[in-house]
Design goal:
single chain, alpha+beta, 3 domains, 23% strand
Length: 221
């Protein structure tokens, strides 16, 4: 027996129809707001764009603008469905998208902002995802099935800010952190994520605090 943790009915409606509804609302509101802003007689950034928006008043122009904004809303819905993951919980394991983790292999599950993180017995990230279910639903289900749910990262106190050439870190780890810092600044998420895996193989966990990297040694439980 398993249980799927996905969108609640209200959330499903919100994700499916909300962005498109916002697009329709903006179709009616944007030209009015643009004309009001132009009438203030003050310097405006992107004034040419605002003037174009304010000039939209004919039915066919509103229809075209509405179609564009609704299409943008539907694209947001599609992206949300792809990024947000349905989690399946069973008596012996849980599935996070394409990744399955046995309950006995987990040391902790917790939410870091909107991201659900699963740590294994060596405190490595066994899985991470953006869940479709809300926090209360996740917590209740995982506790009911005996999974090690935590309110926060149980190893948070072990993290230290990384500084290049810091004493105590092996040269190989420092080199990967240096390369990853560049990837983070370039917003190369995939490359930075791959380096996290490399660092875990070297015995260290890393998380980001803005543009700073925090590190800690892995902990076996």
């Amino acid at each position: 027996m398993t249980r799927e943790l996905g969108f609640s009915p209200p959330d499903r409606v919100l994700v499916a129809a909300g962005p498109a509804a916002v697009g329709l609302l903006l179709t009616a509101v944007l030209p009015i707001v643009a004309r009001w802003a132009l009438g203030l007689g003050i310097a405006l950034p992107f004034r040419a764009v605002i003037r174009v928006i304010g000039a939209v008043d004919r039915p066919w122009e509103l229809a075209v603008q509405g179609a564009i904004l609704v299409a943008a809303g539907l694209f947001v819905t599609l992206v949300s469905h792809e990024r947000l993951v349905t989690i399946t919980v069973g008596p012996g394991e849980a599935r996070f998208g394409e990744v399955s983790v046995a309950r006995g292999d987990m040391a902790a599950l917790y939410l870091d902002g909107e991201t659900l993180i699963v740590l294994d017995r060596e405190s490595r990230q066994a899985a991470r995802c953006l869940p479709r279910a809300r926090r209360k639903v996740l917590e209740a289900a995982f506790r009911e099935w005996g999974f090690p749910w935590r309110d926060s990262d149980p190893y948070a106190a072990l993290y230290r800010p990384w500084n290049p050439g810091e004493d105590g870190l092996p040269p190989a780890v420092d080199a990967v952190l240096s390369a990853r810092a560049v990837a983070v600044r370039r917003k190369a998420a995939q490359e930075a994520g791959e380096m996290l895996t490399t660092l875990e193989k070297l015995g260290y966990s890393v998380r980001d605090d803005g543009d700073k990297q925090l590190w800690r040694p892995l902990v076996r439980s």
